[in-house]
Specification:
Elements lengths: L1 E12 L2 E13 L4 E5 L6 H8 L7 E6 L2 E2 L5 H11 E4 L11 H11 L4 H14 L15 H13 L5 E5 L7 H18 L2 E6 L2 H6 L2 E6 L2 E7 L3
Parallel strand pairs: 3-8, 3-9, 6-7, 7-8
Antiparallel strand pairs: 1-2, 1-4, 4-5, 9-10
Helix pairs in contact: 3-4, 3-5, 4-5
Length: 227
C-alpha cells in the first residue's frame, strides 16, 4: 500500500542542513497496524508527513497504491488526502471556532456527505471516544486530552483506508489511551483500515503488530509480531 524507496529529506535552516531522513526504504501492506518508534528527531513524523502527502522528499520515491506521489498535481494530492487518508496530528489541528461535533463533521462536509448523516456519524464516534457530553464545546473549552480525542474521532469517522497518527496517545491518561487503541484495533481488524503510528508510548508499541525503529533518520530495526 505504501512504499518508500531510498528516501532522503533535508531541511535547510539559514544555510544549515539537517538530514531528517537518510536513505529510508520501507513498505507497508494494506491492513497493517504498525508503529514507527524512536526518539525525538529520529524521523518518525517526517516519514508520516511524506506518506500523507503533506510534504515531499528531497530525493527518493514515495508511492501510495503504486502511484508516485511526486507525479501527482496539487489537486490530485488534495483529493487523495480527503478521500483515502485520516490524520491525527500531534498538535491536534482542530478549528478553534468550531465545536467538537463540527470539527469531526468537517471532513465529511468537504466530502459532500448530507448533514443528517454527518451529525449521526459524528455523534456516534464522539460517544465511542468518550466525549458524548462535550459535542458542543469548542477546542479552547476542552483539555489537551479531550482535544486529542476529538482529533482521533475526526480521523476515523470517514472510515479511511489509511490512518496516519502522530503520537496519538501523547496527551492521554493510560485508561483513555487504551480505550482509543482498542477502538483503532477494532477498525483495523473488522474494516481493514491500515494504521501507521509514530510513537514513544510503550502501550502503542506493545499493541502494534509490527514495530519499525528509527534513529537519526535511518531504520535500524523492523520487528513483526504474531497477529
Amino acid at each position: 500500500m505504501l512504499e518508500a524507496h531510498d528516501v532522503f529529506k533535508v531541511y535547510d535552516t539559514r544555510g544549515v542542513e539537517t538530514r531528517a531522513l537518510d536513505g529510508v526504504s520501507l513498505e507497508i501492506e494494506a491492513g497493517e497496524f504498525t508503529a514507527l518508534a524512536g526518539p525525538s528527531g529520529s524521523g518518525k513524523t517526517t516519514l508520516l508527513n511524506l506518506f500523507g502527502a503533506l510534504d515531499s522528499a528531497t530525493s527518493g520515491s514515495i508511492r501510495l497504491d503504486g502511484q508516485e506521489l511526486s507525479e501527482l498535481k496539487p489537486a490530485e494530492l488534495a483529493h487523495l488526502r480527503l478521500h483515502q487518508l485520516g490524520f491525527v496530528f500531534q498538535a491536534y489541528n482542530l478549528i478553534p471556532v468550531l465545536t467538537a461535533r463540527e470539527n469531526v463533521e468537517f471532513v465529511m462536509e468537504l466530502q459532500g456527505i448530507p448533514a443528517a448523516e454527518r451529525r449521526e456519524r459524528s455523534l456516534a464516534v464522539l460517544a465511542e471516544v468518550g466525549l458524548a457530553d462535550l459535542e458542543a464545546k469548542r477546542p479552547l473549552e476542552m483539555s489537551g486530552g479531550q482535544q486529542q480525542r476529538v482529533a482521533v474521532a475526526r480521523a476515523i469517522v470517514t472510515n479511511p483506508r489509511l490512518v496516519l497518527a502522530d503520537e496519538p496517545t501523547a496527551n492521554l491518561d493510560s485508561h483513555t489511551a487504551e480505550r482509543l487503541l482498542d477502538l483503532m484495533e477494532e477498525m483495523n481488524r473488522e474494516h481493514g483500515v491500515t494504521f501507521l503510528f509514530s510513537t514513544h508510548d510503550p502501550m502503542v508499541i506493545e499493541k502494534a503488530r509490527r514495530v519499525v525503529r528509527l534513529r537519526d533518520g535511518r531504520i535500524f530495526a523492523d520487528e513483526a509480531r504474531a497477529a
